[in-house]
Amino acid sequence: MTYHCRIILLMPITTHTIKEYKKQGRKIVALTAYDYSTAKALDKAGVDIILVGDSLAQVVLGHENTLSVTMDEMLHHAKAVVKGAENAMVVVDMPFLSYQVSKKEAVYNAGKCLQIGANAVKLEGASKNILKTIKKMVDIGVPVLGHIGFTPQSVNALGGHRVQGRTADSAKKLLEEAMALEEAGCFGIVLELVPAETAALITEGINIPTIGIGAGPDCDGQILVTDDLLGKFTDFKPSFVKRYAELGKETENAVKNFIFDVQNKKYPQIAESFFMSESEVQRLK
Q: Which of 50, 74, 99, 249 has the most CB within a 10 Å radius?
């Protein structure tokens, strides 16, 4: 009997792919990663976008918010993520003060992200200065993912983790910002902590994909912090997060079992040990 094998070649996800998904009505799936093994698992599972998020500050480095993470730290972790992602698009969050101070510095920092193998960068906000910076980045070939609604780097200015776009006027303002980001050249926009109605309005009003996080079901895609999804980060749980595992608890239980086995001389056993040959044992005597 002859068997015919069909080899399916997976093509790397690009900005063009992401835009096509919106046209096709195919939902985009994005998650965060900060290390090689996590990126590899997400990539194998079929995630479209892997974001090296500035949430690194909280879930990996233990900071209170995202403001403390540096460009060097982002690049350090992005290098590892790039090595683990074969097909998914890798997007790097531009951290606080890496793009707000000057357009020149912003473009330079974005370029460093691409130099290490990332495919795009993400910037928060849609002020005039940010829009000019995005246009410059796009002009030199740096793909940019926008981010509006609740913008974590502006947490102090916004008065905490507050839902944005609750009123008709503020929803229309966010739509105007989204349209401005599209005009500036963004290939997509993250909508964070906005009412479902506002997200739907924006999604219908622009030609580039929207990726929601706490923004309802009508966005073109969804993103979560992987450590929230897996239950690894347990300091707090955002109300919009659905846990798909409880790895924090499972890890704690596994470590407790290891402690018990070591203290009760149940680990290591013969199967987990190495031994000398009988002749070498005799020579020791």
A: 50
Whether 123 and 240 share a structural domain: yes
Is residue 1 one of the residues assigned to a domain?
no
Residues 250/228, Cβ–Cβ less than 8 Å = no
Task: Based on the fold, state whether residues 217 and 272 are members of the same structural domain.
Answer: no
Tell me which residues are annotated as active site.
192
> 237-260, pLDDT tens digit by residue?
999 999 999 999 999 999 999 999
d(CA 95, CA 16): 25
Instruction: Say what percent of the chain tops pLDDT 90.
Output: 92
Instruction: Print the domain residue range for 214.
Output: 15-245
With b for 16 or more beta-carbon neighbours within 10 A and e for fewer, the 8-20 pattern comes to: eeeeebebebbbe
Assigned domain for 3 exists: no
Do the Cβ atoms of 16 and 89 come closer than 8 Å?
Answer: no
Q: Taking the model in full, what pTM does it have?
A: 0.93
Separation between Cα atoms, residue 11 and residue 192, nearest integer Å: 29
